[in-house]
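FAQ: What does a ligand-bound record look like?

Like this one, built around alpha-L-arabinofuranose:
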Amino acid sequence: VTLTVSTTGGNASSPLLYGIMFEDINNSGDGGIHGQLLRNNGFQGNSPDLTAYSSVGSGVTLSVDTANPLSTAITRSLKVTVASGTTGQVGFANAGYLGVPVNADTYANYFWVKGTYSGAVTLSLYGPSGTVYATKTITINSNSSAWSYYETTYTSTQSYESNNAWKLTFDASKVAGSALYFDLVQLFPVTYHQRYAPLNTHTIDVAANWGRYNGLRNDVATYLEQIKPSFLRFPGGNNLEGATPATRWKWNETIGPVHMRPGRQGDWGYPNTDALGLMEYMQWCIDMSMEPLLAVWSGLSLGGGIISGTALTPYVNDILNELEFLLGATTTTYGALRATYGRTDPYSLTYIEVGNEDNLSSGCATYASRFTAIYNAVHAKYPDLVIVASTSQASCLPSPLPTGVYTDTHHYSSPDQFVGMFNEWDNYPRSNGNGVLVGEYASTTGNDGSATYWSNMQGSCGEAVYMIGMERNSDVVKMASFAPLFEHYDMAEWSPDLFGVNSTVGSITGSTSFWVQYMFSTHRGTTILPVTSDTNFGPVYWVASSQSGGTYYAKLANYGSAAASVTVKFSGTGFSTAAQLTLLSGPQLTANYPGIVSITPQTSTVTGSSSAGYTFSIPAWGVAVLAVTA
Ligand code: AHR
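The answer part, i.e. the structure of the complex:
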């Protein structure tokens, strides 16, 4: 294959093309990217039990208590009953999300306690055989009439493999014949990212110059940051919608102090603490320089419960309240509320999406009217916001669609189907200003229909072909995100996901598709350039671009079973003789699996010139990016 890239002409490409989609699925939030490591700490969700807890010492009984609410939001607590005559150290343990990761790190520990106790409390991280890795003893004075709050830090000097746990113990003789209550135990390693004053008065964060209070897991966020995503679509996905309208994701229940967040039964079968809430999402965007793409509830719930017509008005108003919370001056009601939570400046927000997959769950028939009600209210007040419809199915959309509205398309398909969709956007109308979001896509099956566990080279190559098709049309395809993003891979309900982690040291694993995202996202041009070729597309596909600074890129995918020799020429002069080639390749059905990585991008130098070209080979099912400066 010989390609000649024109250094003039072409289309502007979307600077936001490669982003990420996040919802709490696969325990990717609680137990995943959120930094808090202890599970079931607020006994949230539909039917909380003692999941993750166990008693420490004899003479101790644990139960979930409802008679001593911590707050109006956290209404249950852990009752630790100590039998008469008990002595020694007793208490309770929490095994986290199938293990508490213990690394050479400093840990912040927060907890609430109620019940009469004056004396030492010991907090420890320990291993499966009971060996204590890090510990701290503090003195507390609690009483039975009100909850008392404590916080401390301690350090582990090294990392420990897996199956670790956390425990809190106290002097049994001081409680024997009675009980203590504990709530919202929280354990954070140093969190991502820049150090700053915390959202509230947690003095240890200021003093120790910690990461963000209630922040993201540093190792996970830092790994993700490699792909330099340019937007974050959140909080769903299905997890926005709720099983019923009443159990939808509610922005106003995810803000403020965590002990005032009730959490909810998430839509993926487990409780969400909502400690990763609206402000944390916005901070995540700031820290990774991503545009937020905020999904707002459109009246459709997963169980098919739909609110439409005049009944939708309170929900439309709620969206306006949410936007005022994010964008309003501190003189507004909700802008003032934001300021009380530590953020005076309005956030930057340009994109909102109305619902999720409103073509499904019987949503289609009413979506046009629901979308229009929300669009009219939001557009009237915030005319600069770009509003995204959650489906591209014309029969579900208002006709005509208002100018400037984007539509969202989702594809969960086989590798062949992705290749078949290479041209999907070639003839998309450009005249009406309706941009495209491909908000979710992934190769989820083999060509034979078999389920894909972790992305393999053929699937990732198929995605790359589709991505090349999107990039060629990125004057109109504005944003695209693989989904789902992330999994705790011992707690996942959906495969494949882009990357994963569990509680074992060094377990973060990027799939082959993660590396395709990395390669495409980190080599972005501002202009998509015309290319002439001596052959048609298939099995090799390509797109070329340039950055204003003078770097030229050719992205290629070889969706074929034989290696392909490729020469890339450029029409201009002044090109470096050394081009950088980044190559991802491996056998057709080979995947990276949790903790077992065989395929990562490899870089090498290709010598050539713009007129003679840069010649290299792309192995079967390989994905390549050539970068050369001029
Ligand atoms: O990405 C997983 C799910 O797929 C999303 O929650 C939903 O939008 C889609 O159906």
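Follow-up question: can I read anything off the structure? Yes, for example: Residues 364-381 form the longest helix (18 residues).
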